[in-house]
Amino acid sequence: MEEFHPTKYKLRCVATGRIFEDDGLVLEDKQCNSPSMIRTEYDVKHIDVRGDEYGIYKFCDWLPVRRMLKGSSAPVTYRSTNLAKHLGLGNLYITLNGYFPEKGCRMSTCSFKETEAYSVCGRFDETGGHVLVVASAGNTARAFAKVCSENNIPLLLSVPEDNLDALWFEEPLNDCVKLIAVQKGGDYFDAIHLSNVVLRSKRFVAEGGAKNIARRDGMGTTVLSAATFIGRIPDYYFQAVGSGTGAIAAWEAANRLAEDGRFGENHMRLMVAQNAPFVPMYDAWRAGSRHMLSYDDHRARRDAGIIDAKVLSNRKPPYGITGGLFDALTESGGDFFVSTNAALRKAAKLFEQLEGIDIHPAAAVAVDALMQAVNGGKVEKNATIMLNITGCGEKLYKHDKHIWYLKPSIVFPLTASEDEIRSKTEALFA
Questions:
Q1: 304-354, pLDDT tens digit by residue?
Q2: Which CATH number fits domain 76-109+214-397: 3.40.50.1100, 1.10.260.40, 2.40.30.270, 3.40.50.2300?
Q3: pTM for the whole thing?
Q4: Alpha helix (H) residue ranges in 11-153
Q5: 148-140-324-386 Cα dihedral, nearest 10 degrees
Q6: Is the distance from CB of 167 to CB of 145 less than 8 angstroms?
Q7: Which helix (H) or strand (E) holds 334?
Q8: How far apart are CA 235 and CA 416, in angstroms?
């Protein structure tokens, strides 16, 4: 591979348009008086896609990274034959994120969260002595744990105890990765609360979730994969959403591709879905509201416990923030769907039967949304459609392997005091 030079870019506040420099940790424009996303503006306007040996960094022209880390794999796009025929579609393209060597896809965590982790950690400078903090419902934690373990980057994960089965690995992790959890009955929002308490210590820094430009631009490589394979920006983009970050990233990537000029204009409609009964963003969108509707904590935890796609259970998503999902859906003329557990299970079986690989429940939600859109006449049969399979191949990957699970160093009760949380967590990195 050629020598890598850090990507050149600046940051722009979506709300005000102010342009400023990145320091590798910034998550927002401190001079902006209202909640707003920031976006990267790259010096390179015409992307030069490298070879597959670069992994995710084949798209490094549009990733805000200062270095390439080992072990990455890029999303892979192919034209569907079997599922397309089943649905009567002429131009269905599937973008795989996961483990399917037959198609050239080799993400060992079997999730597109790897696209986030390799980009975020490629931007993060751990030499400052900080510990990166990531709150997750499962897949994101697994991806960051893998990347940080393999590249010796200090990491603190905060995950609900009910979701610990998502933290599986082929071998034990580097001791630089630590895990805390919130007791059974707690959800993703409770895990975020734990991480927020820890972040009051100067030793720790927030990964930042949707506000992290590297996370979104990493996830946006799914659309870069599709558009560079197809030769144009898709007409429709299907994905399940928990925070909506992936869909926001997809819209931003499509806008960059339109500015490039070689992939057509951006008319890509975002077609997103949630898993019932946990559908807070769907409810807000259907109500025409930029703001999330009231959602009782007890009911939210109950609903999060019911859904198969646990990774979609974010109670405080970046929905109404300027540049968030509401804006992306509005600007793209998008639509919102709901999938039940029964429907997503049926969709998962159909996909595995027709396309030859097992998929995660969240990916099955996207497949079901596509089926609903086709049956409801919401997509044209000859439209160019991108289906983002955000996780696949876990069953295949685990088939002949002994799996190791990361155990929490501390499980905090929901009633734990802030002093207890902070002091016990700081001691893990003493």
A1: 999 999 989 988 899 999 999 999 999 999 999 999 999 999 999 999 999
A2: 3.40.50.1100
A3: 0.94
A4: 82-87, 113-123, 139-151
A5: 110
A6: yes
A7: none
A8: 48
